[in-house]
Amino acid sequence: MPMQVADFVLQRLREWHIGQVFGYPGDGINGLIAAFGRAENSPRFVQSRHEEMSAFQATGYAKFSGEVGVCAATSGPGAIHLLNGLYDAKLDHVPVVAIVGQTARSAMGGSYQQEVDLQALFKDVASDYLVEVNVANQLPNALDRAIRTAVARRAPTAVIIPADLQEEPYEPPAHAFKQVPSSPPGMSRSISVPTGPEVERAADVLNAGTKLAVLIGQGARDAVDEILEVAELTGAGIAKALLGKDVLSDDLPFVTGSIGLLGTRASYELMRDCDTLLIVGSNFPYSQFLPELDQARAVQIDADGASIGMRYPTEVNLVGDAKATLREVIPLLKRQQDRSWRDTVEENVRHWWQTLERQSMLDADPANPMRVVWELSQCVPDNAIITADSGSSTNWYARCLRMRGTMRGSLSGTLASMGAGVPYAIGAKFAHPDRPVIALVGDGAMQMNGLNELITIQRYQHLWTDRRLIVCVFHNNDLNQVTWELRGMGGAPKFEESQTLPDISYAEIARCTGIEAIAVDTSDGIRPAWDRALAAAGPVLLDIRCDPEMPPIPPHATAEQIKDLGRAVLQGDPGAWHLLVQGVKSKAQEFRP
Prior knowledge:
By secondary structure, this protein is α/β, with parallel strands linked by helices. The protein is built from 22 helices and 18 strands.
C-alpha cells in the first residue's frame, strides 16, 4: 500500500522528534486519524475534551519543555476552537504548530458543510507562517517551514491540509521547476550579540548609577548566572515580570518578586526609588509600575528588536541574546562599593515576606485564599511545576508562591485567558512526566472548562512516571477578580447576577472521574490537605472553600482605587461589611514592625 499524505505527515513529525499531538478528531482530519492508527499511535495522539484545550496543552507543553508543541483539529468548528490557545501562544511567544483539516478541494467555494475560510481565520494568529497544502509535493517543505518558523520566531504557525488530500498517495517534490524541496529535520539556534560601542554605552549607564533596579522576564531564563553576577557587582535589586517569575529563586534576599498590579510592595519600592533601570528579556506592558519617566537612566536587552524601547525611554537598547549580551557587558561593570542600596532592598524584601505571612495567617470565612498558596510554598517539592489560571487566585500565585530550586511556573501571561491552568498542567506532565505538577485554578475557570479536563488527566495518568497532578480549586462561588475590579476600578458594587457562580462540589465531580479529592473548608485544614495530596500516588483535586472578600488589592493601591472601593461599599455591595473588615485587617499587617 503506497504511503498516503497523512502517513508522511506523521513520519515527518517523528523525524522532528515530536512525541505527541494534542488534538480532537473530526471528519476534516479523518485521513490523519487513520494514519495515527497505522503508525500505532506514534507520535501519540492526546485527546482533549475540546480543541481549545488541545491548543492550551500544546502551549503548556512548549513552555515547559522548551520544544515545539503540536495540536490538531478538524475543519470549521474544530479550527475555530483552536484560536484562543493559539493566541495565547502568540502573545506569550511560544512555538506551537497547528495542523488543521479543511473541506475537500472539490467542494471548496461551494458553501459546503463546515467550510470556513481558514486562511482568513488564521492569518493573524499564524501571521508568521500559514500555508494551505493543496498538492502532495508541497510536503515536506510546508510542514518543515511551519516547525522551523515556530521555533525561530517563537510563534504559532498553521498548516491546513484538505481532507481528500490527506488520503492521496504521497509524492515528494521533484528536482524540477516550481517544485520546492526541503532539508532534513533539525536546526541550530542562532545567538546574536550587539556591537562593542553599544555595549560600552550600556556599561557606562549602569556604572553611573548608585541605585540599580533590574527587571527580568522569561527572556532572561538562560541568563541566570549572568543576572546574578550583575546584581553582585552593582548591588542591584531584581524584580520579576509574571512570565519570568520562575527565572530566579525567591529565596534570594535581593529578589523583590513580581511587579505590577499583582506584584509585591518590595518591587514597587524598588522601582519607586531606583536611579537606574536594566530590563532583560521582558516586555512588561504597565509603565505606571516602572520608574517615573524622568527618574531613571535605562538599558534594555532583548532578542527581539521590535520589542525594544517601547515600555520605557531606554537610553541604550541592546538587541541580542540575554546571556551572550550580558557576558559582554559584565567585564565592563565596576563593583559598587556602597552597598546601602542593596541593604535597603533586602530589608524591604524581608519586611514584605513577613507582611505576607501575617496576611496569609489572618482568620477568614471560610478559608483564607492567601494561605492556600503560602502553605504550598512551605511544602512544595523543589522540582514541582506550577500552573496558574486567570482570576483572583493569580494574585496569590504571583505574590505568595516562593519559587526555589528547579521549580517552574507559568500562566496565560499576556492574553490572560481563563481556562489555561488545567490544560497547561496536562501539557507540563507530557513535557516532564517525572515531575509533580500543580494547577492553581479558580472555580470560574473550573466551571468554564477545567472540570472536563479532569477526564483527560484520569485517562493519561498511567503514562506519567510521577502521577502526581494536583488541581487546587479556589472555591468562593464568585468570579472574584472581576468583582474586585468592579469595586476597585469602577466604584461599582458586586452585581450578583453576573458574578455569583452556582455552588457545586468540585470534590464530588472529581471522584466521579476516578480522581481522589479532598474537601477543605477551614484555614487550618489547608496544610494537611497539601501534605496528603503531595504524598498521594496519583492525581488529586483539592476543593478549598475560600473567603471571597479577602482583598487582592495591590500593596501599593492608589488613592483613586481606595476611593472607588469606598464608593462601591456605599452603593450597597452585598459583601460590604465583611470586605471592609478583611480589607482593614489585611492592610494593617503592612504597618506592623
